[in-house]
Write a structure and sequence with these properties.
Helix content is about 40%, strand content about 10%. The chain has about 300 residues and is an alpha/beta fold. The longest helix is centred in the middle third of the chain and has 24 residues.
């Protein structure tokens, strides 16, 4: 099925000190140097700029935690729970395999838009919610709302299980930015309840409540790659887009950051590693070797090159 179109130091206020056996960094055999500056920026002289590095903004899924397989599991569990079947072409309930879900989640942001696209392409399904495929917009919206709510609860159960850990380097970089007086934000296309649960369990309550801005998919009308969420964050942080540096994991997030006038570094995952990140000012397999000063230099050079 396809679509055409070391480890950070243990913080004294981390809620789960025992969880800091972090995931092994991806693609360690060909790591990017965190101090490497893209060639297009090297020949430009470093000049002063009115802009300054004032805010560091993280995406959540794929950046703070490896979450693609967890979301896919929760969606498939929801489809099975409600016996969701799309026409006669599919035997059994809907099941998104890893390859298909990688393509889907890298093209369409947000859970409800994913399901809506899928059902438009494969036919609106029968289910225990509606015995016959829904035809009205209201019934279709109700179907998606129920599935998304159940999926969210299932995803939360997985996060609460204690088996999920933050990606390497995330916590130390957050702490370093806070200590340096930078504004810190998280902007995710996922539902607010899911993101809150992830952040409380993975970065700790003190870090979470110390965020200067937190936005989820519920807070904006348009999902990434639309830049609305990052533009909203800049307003809430009282900074210009050029004052911000975004950490994303996918081309959808990169496009959203760029559309908001923000520079972006990418820390890719196994499902996004082959995407085109040419608009990023740097690319990393993870953040384990990245320090705040590295990002400051990158942002200054990127702004000077414009």
């Amino acid at each position: 099925m396809s679509i055409t179109s070391s480890p950070p130091p243990i913080s004294p206020y981390s809620p789960h000190p025992s969880r800091h056996l972090l995931l092994t960094p991806l693609f360690s055999s060909h790591r990017f140097s965190p101090r490497r500056v893209p060639r297009r920026l090297r020949s430009r002289p470093l000049v002063s700029s009115m802009a300054a590095f004032k805010a560091l903004i993280f995406d959540c899924d794929g950046v703070i935690l490896e979450s693609e397989h967890l979301h896919r599991q929760a969606y498939n569990d929801a489809f099975e729970e409600f016996n969701v079947k799309c026409g006669q072409r599919e035997k059994g309930t809907v099941n998104w395999d890893p390859e298909f879900y990688d393509e889907l989640q890298n093209r369409i942001g947000g859970g409800k838009p994913k399901m809506r696209w899928y059902f438009k392409e494969h036919g609106w399904p029968s289910s225990t919610i509606f015995e016959d495929p829904p035809e009205s917009d209201a019934d279709r919206a109700k179907l998606i709302d129920i599935l998304q709510d159940w999926k969210t609860e299932r995803y939360q159960e997985i996060i609460k299980s204690g088996t999920v850990q933050p990606r390497p380097g995330v916590l130390s970089l957050m702490d370093e930015a806070k200590a340096a007086g930078k504004k810190l934000a998280v902007c995710s296309a996922a539902t607010k309840s899911s993101v809150i649960l992830c952040l409380e369990n993975l970065i700790g309550l003190e870090r979470f409540h110390g965020l200067d801005c937190f936005l989820a998919g519920d807070d904006v009308k348009e999902k990434k790659p639309d830049p609305s969420i990052y533009r909203t964050a800049a307003k809430k942080l009282d900074v210009q887009g050029t004052d911000c540096l975004v950490v994303e994991d996918s081309v959808i997030g990169l496009q959203a950051a760029k559309g908001a006038g923000m520079s972006c570094v990418v820390t890719y995952t196994s499902s996004t590693a082959n995407q085109d990140f040419s608009d990023a000012i740097e690319i990393y397999p993870d953040l384990s070797s990245v320090r705040l000063e590295d990002l400051e230099v990158l942002l200054e050079k990127a702004l000077a090159a414009k």
